[in-house]
Amino acid sequence: MNADKVIEIEHLSYDYPDGTPALRGIDLVVYRHESVAILGPNGAGKSTLLYHLNGTLMGNGRVTILGLPVEKTNLKEIRRKVGLVFQSPEDQLFCPTVFDDVAFGPLNMGLEEEKVRQRVERALEMMGLKGFEGRSAHHLSEGEKKRVALATVLSLDSEILVLDEPTDNLDPAGSRMLIERIQLIPQTKVIVTHHLSVAVNLCERAVLLYGGRKVDDLPLEGLLKNREVLERFGFDADFAQWMYERKKRAL
Amino acid sequence: MRHAFLDHHSGIESPVHHLDARAKIIVFFTFILVGVSSPPNSFYLFGLLALALIGITLLARLPLGHLAKKVLIVLPFLFVVALSIPFLKKDAVGGGYNLGLGGLSVSQSGLWILWNVIIKSSLGVFAIILLYSTTSFPKLIRGMERLGSPNIFTTLLSFMYRYSFILIDEMQRMKRARDSRCFGGRWVWQLMTIGHMVGTLFLRSFYRGERVYLAMLSRGYHGTMPETLAGRFGLGEIVFLSLCPVLLFLRIYLG
Fold it and tell me: What is the pTM of this model?
């Protein structure tokens, strides 16, 4: 089943430039069409791990994306396959208009004009942003910015989507709307979050990081029932139990 | 937070607003070129240029009074530079004032220079204000790009446009945080605080720059910004562009 492994990480370690250890001996395999939540407290190394998935950071160890090792020579190809959405949309949206931002990736890929327009249109439609093409990012609400940031990556048509805290800074309605939109995306997803509700709604598997190490890797339902692990990570175990039962009823 | 200090009127619906930015850039720069290159005594030409600009303003449904005020804002800077010329220029005397402490004479050629500076800069500023009031900044940048402006220049402008708003927001947030902690005291202390704020703002911008660059790399950036897609160049643009030969004709026969 090697073909179905889309992400393979073996013994990955990384130190920040000042020498602080950020990741230690991470092993992880993600299969096609899986949705994996990376959970952990602040400073656990969640975002650092994400940056290794498209070669933004390169530590010691092996990272393979769809059979391609993440190396300098493969970066262009890797970045076509992995769409990374940053935590702050202000970092992700750097063009004067929404259209330019969503078209940035496809244009860099050298696609024809008609194809670029189609991709932009489709990505904006998926995020419920039709008619936003000419708007400037600074005139959008936080929720709209988050959805545009997602659209900028959807237009790349990458096989793996990597999202860093997608619902950060959003109000409950904005969060729910974004979650509903992400649910419609069929690609393999790796989502960093510290909101259990995001993981419950979007993922079926949870990887727990603590102090740069992987401490657990289990189905999400298993996590919701595991009071000891939940409490160790500071999650509300009663709330998790309630979510577990609700999810079971929904199924 | 929402800002619109740069392109306040650029969202109005009008035939001029709908034109491709390239046509507007060319026409308004022809206005400036014709105005600046004319001798100072071409009163008819200046009159016609002003009338044409007013005509475009009305066609673009822009508030004329508001635009006129914007033109006036530039004039004080002009006066500081040019007002002394008629008094300092040694030439044929155009008139004189007796201020009681001795005569103050005004030179004729100095007056011409003053008139020249005032009329040309007012017309030029009027044309530029019309350009950015009828074209949003992103479209302006795209127009410049399509007209062959260097990629590095338009990229710099577009980043400046995008991030100036974020910087202003960040500065305002810091200012609020400062004021809500009873900011005051001796001026040296205040100055120090402001210094720290400027430093913090610089560091934050620096780190943001790094993150933005990573976000660009993640979407396939490889050193040059991709060219944006072309706009539509239709009949309206051609009609608007036909102002250029008319302006050049007027420059030759009236200037």
Answer: 0.77
For the four alpha carbons of B45, B48, B53 and B56, in that order, the dihedral sign comes to negative
The Cα of A21 is separated from the nearest Cα of chain B by a number of Å equal to 20
- Cβ <8 Å between B215 and A92: yes
Q: Write the pLDDT tens digit of every residue in A179-236.
A: 999 999 999 999 999 888 899 999 999 999 999 999 999 999 899 988 888 988 888 8
- Assigned CATH topology for domain A2-250: Rossmann fold (3.40.50)
Among all residues of chain B, which has the CA nearest to that of A152? B219
Residues A98-130 pLDDT 10s:
998 999 989 888 888 899 999 999 999 999 999
If you average pLDDT over residues B224-236, what whole number do you get?
77
CB nearest to A96's CB, from B161, B212, B221? B161
Q: Which of B219, B227, B228, B232 to mutate to test the interface with A (most CBs of A within 10 A)?
A: B219
Please, are residues B86 and B114 in contact by the beta-carbon 8 Å criterion? yes
Strand A35-39 versus strand A205-210 pairing type: parallel
- Chain A within 8 Å of B166 (Cβ-Cβ)? yes
Q: How far is CA A166 from the centre of its chain?
A: 7
